[in-house]
Amino acid sequence: MQISEGSSFHAWVDESMRQKDIPVPMYLLGAVVANPDECDGARQELRNILPKGAPKLHWHAMEPREKTRATAVVSSFGATHLVVVGTPLDHRKQERARAQCMEQLYWRLGEMGVTKVFLEAREKSQQQKDLQLVNVLRIRKVMPERLRVEGA
């Protein structure tokens, strides 16, 4: 996907770690890339799946039928999905794996012309590390200046 002149695309990013029941542990960083002006329908459909009293959808807290519905909404929505995989994962160095995956993800999102990235909320100290990494990557010129990153 390449963004046309005058378009603005955003990316929403979340992580996952797989360590059990697989031969090689891995760290995954996934992004959904879409035009924010075209997201309202999908947002509303996902809100309709939200369990009563839950502040947000979270895969581990969802029932199987909710997962099926959420997957159908996300896959039918006109978005691009990008996943960066870091393996093997040393569980003692998860933040290092995250930083390496983020570098690749930001570079690829920049190539696609994405202008804004929203990271899933983490602990405040972890979010500060994420934003410090952005500064380092900018200094090293491995992510475009136009790419803005915000903690969720």
Strand and helix layout:
Blueprint: E1 10-18, E2 26-34, H1 40-49, H2 64-76, E3 80-86, H3 94-112, E4 116-119, H4 124-139, E5 148-151
Helix pairs in contact: 1-2
Provide a descriptive summary of the structure in words.
With 152 residues, the chain is an alpha/beta fold. It has 2 domains: 1-38 and 79-152, archaeoglobus fulgidus dsm 4304 superfamily (archaeoglobus fulgidus dsm 4304 fold, 2-Layer Sandwich); 40-76, no CATH class. Helix content is 38%, strand content 22%. The protein has 4 helices and 5 strands, in the order ββααβαβαβ. Strands 3-2-1-4-5 form a 5-stranded mixed β-sheet, covered by helices on one side. α1 packs antiparallel against α2. The longest helix has 19 residues, at 94-112. The model has no long low-confidence stretch (mean pLDDT 88).
CATH architecture of the largest domain: 2-Layer Sandwich
Tell me the major beta sheet: 5 strands, mixed
Radius of gyration: 16 Å
CATH topology of the largest domain: archaeoglobus fulgidus dsm 4304 fold
Q: Which CATH first-tier class of the largest domain would you pick?
A: Alpha Beta
Number of domains: 2
Secondary-structure element string: EEHHEHEHE
Strand content: 15-25%
Mean pLDDT: 88
Q: Can you tell me the CATH superfamily of the largest domain? A: archaeoglobus fulgidus dsm 4304 superfamily
Shape designation: globular
**Tally of DSSP β-strands:** 5
Distance between the termini: 24 Å
Report the structural category.
alpha/beta
Main sheet: which strands, in order across? 3-2-1-4-5
State the helicity in percent bands. Answer: 25-40%
How many helices? The count is 4
Low-pLDDT residue spans: none
